[in-house]
Amino acid sequence: MRTPQPADTADTGAADLEHVIEVGGLRQRYGDFEAVRGVSFTVARGEIFALLGTNGAGKTTTMEVLEGFAPATDGTVRVLGLDPVGQRRALRPRVGIMLQEGGFLGDLTVAETVDLWKGLSEDAGRPVTLSGAELPGRLTLMGWTKGADRRTMGVLELVGLESKARTRVKQLSGGQKRRLDLALAVLSAPEVLFLDEPTTGMDPEARRATWKVIEDLRARGTTVLLTTHYLEEAERLADRLAIMHEGRIHTYGTVGEVVAGSGDLVSFRLSGTTRSYDELPILNGAAPALTYAGGGTEVSYTLTGEGADTRAHAALSPLLAWADGNGETLGQLTVRRGTLEDAFMRVLGETP
Amino acid sequence: MRTDVLHAVRLARLDLTLVARNTTVLFNVLLMPLLMAWLFTQAQGGVSVAGVPGPVYVLTGVPGLMLGFAVFINLVNSYTSRREELVLKRLRGGQPSAAAVLGGSALGALALFLGQVALLGVWIRRSEGVLPSNVPLLVLAAFLGVVLFALFAAAFSAITPNAEMAQITVLPVILIMMVGSPIAFPAGEMPGPLGTISNLLPVTPIVKIMRSAYLGADHFSSGGGALSTLEQWTGALPSLGLLLAWIVAGALLARWLFRWEPRRG
User: Fold this and answer.
1) Where would I find the ABC transporter domain in this sequence (chain A) (predicted)?
2) For B52-93, what is each residue's pLDDT tens digit?
3) Sign of the torsion angle spanned by Cα atoms B117, B123, B127, B129
4) CB of A201 within 8 A of CB of A174?
5) Chain A contact for B255 (CB, 8 A cutoff)
6) CB neighbour burial string for A78-112, b if at least 16 within 10 angstroms, e if fewer
7) Of A308, B120, B122, B169, which has the highest C-beta tally within 10 A?
8) Domain A19-258, CATH number (from 3.40.50.300, 2.102.10.10, 3.40.50.1820, 3.90.190.20)
9) Nearest Cβ partner of B95 from A93, A103, A105?
């Protein structure tokens, strides 16, 4: 197991695999503001890689450079070995893009939107297996409504929008628009899929259905780069992930590696609010964090370093000895492994 | 190249579909210029301008006005609203090239404009009994006019913050086109430097070429004498030169100003 490391210039450990996405020393500046400050990572074929971070962390900017919306201010960027800006025409048929928001013509129906996109896309050279029941055209009070062919209906069934085929896009909910966006992104069976916050605004059922679609795409060999605010989503989907903050990658690796890097958490409660750091023990080199609340003192230790399997055990003996020796009761004593949220909060410089 | 043309045609069809579904746009783009044409002909009824009956003079100049409505206003609206709603960004993120995305909308506007010119032709034929003399020159001027105002629309969309504001940003251009170009009376009849300015306005060469091509007469100057087909083409050269100069200026402006996405922050 590799230890997660600050990955601004780090190797990803995937050198033996084909790197579908390569980012090296990426910097992106808008005027005086540097949105991305030297980011490097690679994504292997068939891998789902998640970029996590708060708003303004630089996730979407990184994504947009990879999508070819803007040339990099500095650094190198390659997708399928191609420059997303300079070799746009060769690259575009091979990638699918799900924007963070918007981009629809509200007066078109859902089926018309897919049809339009189909007419503007050529397949990525991979078999398109999407197929559903043909939707016939029909006469309504608003005039003749075009039907939809099997492929259009197939992709709408994939994202659960087949019943909305004749609905104008402006009448869809936010979550339904996200699903339509996903339909457009996967329509031409792309080799690489960029998903910018794909499940924002979706209800839990639609979110899980979307995860299933993404997992199925991975099973078919599609490489996915996604950004998300949902840690649960990253934990469920990502083979590897990176946590960005203020334009930099602070930690990356598999979920297990990132979580292991966040350490184990020991917490308990002491009576009284006059406790100080000096009277509490140092455990495995970790100093306590104190919070005064509810007439007591919440104490927590984050145990990091070597011996991930035994470090909590090693810390408990001296802690219990300290409690016995000082006549203290460790209320609500809890020992648990770190979570992705702990790792995330740690990057943000906060304690959970 | 073939793919670009296919994409542009699909996007042009899309634009025409959306115009047909929006009654406000339909009125502004199609009916408003025809209504104004009718009002102009009423004002010019019974008089002769540059050797032709007033209504004929006005109706052969109205395409200049139609360019303002069917092309300029329509495309400023379209480019601005699609930029703000991230439609342009989505299209740019897909397979169509930038030229196909912008050209597709311009192609839709060209179809609208040519349709209006054809309607105008029917009107002139029925009311005044005049048929167009030089259709190729007429179509060339129409095409170049659409190219010019599509480029202007791309540039003006950049200084238009949203679709609602589009009516305001295009207003000065429309007013100048209505007052300064030879739609209802010859450009040279304006006093002093105004006549010179009027002759240099972007819509003036379009109107001069279209009117001369329609009537088979010299309306490049204020003469009005009959011209052979060859003379119409040679007579049109200075106007075509001016028009091409405006197209180059429009292209530079569009390239400099046009934005695919809303401003950040």
Assistant:
1) 21-271
2) 888 888 899 999 999 998 899 999 999 999 999 999 999 998
3) positive
4) yes
5) no
6) bbbebbbeeebeebbbbbbbbbbbebbbeebbbbb
7) B120
8) 3.40.50.300
9) A93
